[in-house]
Amino acid sequence: MSITDQEIERFQKTFSELKSEMLKAIIGCDGIVEDLLVCFFAGGNLLLESSPGLGKTLIIKTLAQVLDLKFNRVQFTPDLMPSDIIGTTIVMESDEGEKVFEFQPGPVFTQILLADEINRATPKTQSALLEAMQERMVSVGGKTHQLELPYFVLATQNPLDTEGTYSLPEAQIDRFFFKLSIEFPDLNNLQRIGDMASGSAVVKLNKIIGGKEALELQDMVRRVEAGKEATAFAIRTVLKTNPASSEGSDNAKKFLRYGSSPRGAQALTLGGKVRALIDGRGSVEPKDIIAVSKQILSHRLILNFEGESENIRQAILIEEAVAELSA
After folding, report:
1. What are the residue ranges in the chain where pLDDT is below 70?
2. pTM score, two decimals?
3. What is the rounded CA–CA span in Å between residue 32 and residue 173?
4. For residue range 247-258, what is the model confidence (pLDDT) as tens digits?
5. Does residue 159 have a cis bond before it (omega within 30 degrees)?
6. CATH (residue range 1-80+107-223)
7. Fold exhibited by the domain 225-327
8. Which residues are 67's β-sheet partners?
9. DSSP label of 225
10. Burial code of 203-217, b = ≥16 C-beta within 10 A, e = fewer?
11. Would you give the DSSP letter of residue 61?
12. Residue 55, SS3?
């Protein structure tokens, strides 16, 4: 079923309202907010990285405020156990006095989950999120529990602090649709942040959409047409940045240990569909793929020793790849 002009206008209007409402409370992060919403409507999960105090948690809490969805926050620490996140089965006594097992759901049973400082938890606890992130379900005690849709995991991490942290495994990194980094604000934005923090006015945010409409818009995204040209561009971008591929660029083979999995190509197409809707089109073009390529591929490209020693940025390799493909 093809998408109609009325549906495209509806998506643009809702997207614009959400972005404007969030920017009432967030200063100097217009691009981050837009990418966050692109990730949400694509149905993915987000990894947000920055130095301390730059507003990672504020951005995510603001999203929860403008969406009429259930929200939970988990502060990850080294002593956090998997059962603290997904829940556990406990022994209860029924009204008849019998002992029964009852599942007590953890904070993962929500719709928007903020996994704060996810790299502070042990790998065992980090992996407890994998099934929820990918399958939207949780398996405990031999039973499977479905999570309520839409479901969105937003994780934060501090790249500077290494003591007491555990790097995310490649398998979990790959399950984040986008990875975004917040830059330090410039002088003007720093002044505006200071004025807002020290002022007496309280920013009141309105809820724009709820779960039903969010699911409808996510379904609308998937109905956007992705023609052969756009799909081929997404696939060739992944191959161009893969050192194991015969189509891999010279720099990819020189500086990368691993490239993206096929999940990266799927994400490029899906992210491109959201970008097409934002621009008022019902079909994906290569420029839509390019617009989301760094956000999707940067964290999926693993540097080798030479790449790390020369401090190569994955974004540069992606820029080179799309430039060659666009020529």
Report:
1. 1, 51-55, 94, 160-166, 185-187, 189-202
2. 0.87
3. 19
4. 888 888 899 988
5. no
6. 3.40.50.300
7. Helicase, Ruva Protein; domain 3 (1.10.8)
8. 209
9. B
10. eeeeebbebeebeeb
11. H
12. coil
